[in-house]
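F.,

This is the one I mentioned.
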């Protein structure tokens, strides 16, 4: 049958035959939480599979190994319907390219690509939303660090964050110092939030 275990722990076949799975597991020194994997060449194509049969057919070139069991990751939380509607409204409001919110530790991250800023310059922006949005207000607004922002009022833009908003400086974002106070779910929206935020940048007289 020609099965041999090499110094790296792989069991390789040099002939045709069959072997019981428990015998193969002994050769591989399989741990209690390991699975057995087979790799080889079939019709010129490299293949790989988990060995589940109690009796295993082998052929020249088959290589067996022991490895951790691989399970599918947890399914991502579905996007709330209310948030879907707001993202759709935001994408039609002319602010720039609006991506789909991505799950994050804080809740959701909504990226805006090519957001048109006061004065006509464009940059990427990020709106951080809590898991309970829209019942709770946005956590924070960020602009891509190092972009052309000379025409803006930068007095509310910082390299670090406050008011429990996460510091994303290491990821290339500057935090906008503004808290959505007295948030009213169903009345206040992302379109309104972004409109007011941009107004702060455009008008130094806004306090």
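My design for it:
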């Amino acid at each position: 049958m020609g099965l041999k275990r090499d110094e790296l722990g792989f069991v390789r076949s040099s002939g045709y035959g069959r072997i019981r799975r428990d015998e193969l597991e002994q050769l591989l020194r399989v741990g209690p939480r390991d699975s057995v994997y087979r790799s080889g060449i079939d019709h010129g194509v490299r293949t790989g599979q988990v060995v589940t049969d109690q009796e295993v057919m082998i052929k020249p070139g088959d290589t067996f190994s022991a490895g951790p069991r691989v399970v599918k990751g947890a399914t991502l939380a579905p996007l709330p319907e209310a948030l879907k509607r707001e993202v759709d409204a935001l994408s039609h409001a002319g602010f720039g390219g609006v991506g789909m919110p991505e799950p994050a530790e804080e809740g959701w991250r909504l990226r805006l690509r090519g957001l048109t800023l006061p004065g006509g310059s464009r940059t990427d922006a990020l709106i951080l939303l809590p898991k309970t949005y829209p019942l709770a207000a946005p956590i924070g607004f960020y602009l891509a660090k190092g972009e052309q922002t000379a025409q803006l009022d930068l007095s509310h833009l910082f390299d670090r964050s406050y008011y429990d908003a996460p510091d994303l400086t290491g990821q290339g974002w500057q935090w906008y110092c503004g808290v959505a106070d007295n948030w009213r779910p169903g009345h206040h929206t992302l379109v309104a939030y972004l409109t007011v935020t941009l107004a702060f940048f455009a008008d130094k007289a806004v306090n």
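The first strand starts at residue 3 and ends at 5.

Talk soon.
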